[in-house]
Design a protein that fits this description.
Elements lengths: L2 H18 L3 E17 L2 E19 L2 E7 L4 H9 L27 H9 L3 H6 L8 E16 L4 E17 L2 E9 L4 H20 L2 E2 L4 E7 L1 H14 L2 H5 L21 E3 L22 E5 L2 E2 L6 H7 L17 E3 L9 H5 L2 E4 L2 E8 L4 E6 L3 E5 L2 E6 L2 E6 H6 L1 E13 L2 E19 L3
Parallel strand pairs: 7-17, 8-13, 12-20
Antiparallel strand pairs: 1-2, 1-4, 2-3, 4-5, 5-6, 8-20, 9-10, 9-12, 10-11, 13-16, 14-15, 15-18, 16-17, 18-20, 19-20
Helix pairs in contact: 1-2
Length: 441
């Protein structure tokens, strides 16, 4: 029995038990083979492989609803037992009946990734990516094969397969570091090696420059794709109707047609892009997915919905379920006009930030946030990097930064790592202004 057959069987068996007990339900069964190669001090230090089987269920009765999950071989037992607690819950204002299915399977499988993940053999990765030539480096490479099946009491019986080739690497040179990431649904060695080359280049360039600090204030800023991926994820999260309902969206008052950003910014949810690993032909309710703009040339196009948020807000589902709250899948940011050789000239005098982490919102409704740089940060004068800075804090408001975008790069990078959970096709972004300060270390 294949992993896809196994997942489909678990989904249908669990749904049958829940349906017999009188529940409205949707069951998502996932079987996943993962192979991770970890790098430390420039050597492939650990190779881990594992096979996981998880089953989640949305269960509803009398407008009471909950989500349960299990990794048991017979998941229906624990889920059915837990579902008896529904009677203790209050009726949910988010409840809506599960829709009739309209989606269809959309699969993409790279056999080399699938076979390696199932065998637990990563030996060829070290040679293909020339990892031994990176010098002092740390990071990981992931090969993953996933089989997913959905069954609902509204009639959905859907399943698909996907593979993922994902990684990031942090390269150290002296007291400097550079990091880059990549992600794909195929074993794309060239993209991975280009990402590794970017990490090496950033670390080496930073290590050759003198150290400097800056005074707190407003600066012209060039954000690298790693930073852009992180901030784009926050933007797209704010476009989820769930964030609006729970008071965590700086786009809460936006209406379709409202200008919310610079006219050069277009951000899309692309679940139909099979080149990025979170592609889907159907959402968690069985509704067909569709590619859609969230912001188009600076104009807000609409919130992401499942049937529950759509009913509550008088809208239609956009095929973005999440059983309780809507979610994006793959994120695309449209390219701009900046060429690689022109970016620092366009920045001229300012700060180039290549990576970030610890993004936190102090006020979700106003979009007030801060984030801290990680790895190489360059002070640029007259279009040339003149110094490497320490950790820099961006402390600003998302709506303000969105309107400060002057241009984006023509080239985009497929980014995914722990600070960018959704696969994102991200360019560089040039900001006319951003509030910076030195971060405490």
């Amino acid at each position: 029995m294949t992993l896809l057959d196994e997942a489909s069987k678990r989904a249908s068996e669990t749904l049958e038990k829940l349906s017999e007990a009188g529940y409205e339900a949707a069951v998502l069964a996932v079987s996943k083979a993962s192979l991770m190669l970890k790098m430390a001090r420039g050597e492939a230090s650990v190779t881990q492989s594992w096979l996981t089987r998880s089953t989640s269920a949305y269960v509803a009765k009398d407008k009471r609803m909950a989500v349960y999950s299990s990794e048991s071989p017979e998941p229906w037992r624990g889920i059915l037992d837990a579902s008896r607690n529904l009677r203790a819950l209050e009726e949910s204002p988010l409840y809506a009946p599960l829709p009739e299915p309209s989606g269809s399977p959309l699969s993409r499988v790279d056999e080399r990734i699938r076979d390696a993940a199932l065998r637990g053999d990563a030996s060829f990765v070290v040679e293909d990516l020339e990892l031994s030539q990176l010098g002092d480096a740390a990071g990981m490479v992931l090969l993953e094969y996933t089989a997913t099946a959905l069954a609902t009491t509204a009639g959905a019986e859907l399943a698909y397969e996907a593979t993922r080739f994902n990684g990031y690497m942090r390269v150290f040179r002296g007291g400097a570091s550079g990091q880059w990431s990549w992600t794909s649904t195929v074993y794309d060695v060239n993209t991975a090696k280009r990402a590794l080359g970017q990490a090496v280049q950033l670390a080496e360039e930073c290590s050759r420059l003198p150290k400097a600090t800056i005074e707190p204030g407003e600066y012209r800023v060039l954000l690298g794709p790693m930073v852009v991926g992180n901030l784009a994820e926050e933007l797209v999260s704010s476009a989820s109707a769930g964030s609006v309902i729970f008071g965590m969206s700086f786009l809460r008052d936006a209406k379709p047609g409202d200008p919310v950003a610079s006219g050069v910014l277009t951000v899309e949810d692309r679940p139909r892009d099979t080149g990025l690993p979170f592609f889907r032909g159907f959402d968690d309710e069985g509704v067909a997915t569709k590619d859609k703009a969230i912001i188009e040339k600076g104009v807000f196009k609409g919130f992401l919905h499942n049937t529950k948020t759509a009913r509550l807000m008088g809208a239609s589902t956009t095929g973005n379920a999440g059983w309780i709250l809507p979610t994006a899948f793959n994120i695309h940011i449209a390219p701009g006009t900046l060429k690689p050789d022109d970016m620092l000239d366009s920045l001229w005098d300012g700060v180039y930030i290549t990576n970030n982490w610890y993004t936190r919102f102090q006020n979700y409704l106003e979009g007030e946030f801060s984030t801290v740089s990680r790895d190489a940060v360059f002070l640029v004068k007259n279009g040339e990097p003149r110094a490497c800075l320490g950790r820099i804090r961006i402390a600003d408001r998302m709506p303000r930064l969105m309107k400060a975008i002057e241009d984006l790069s023509a080239e985009r990078w497929p980014i995914q790592w722990w600070e960018v959970s959704h696969p994102t096709l991200a360019p560089y972004v040039l900001l006319s202004r951003a509030r910076l300060s030195v971060a405490e270390t």
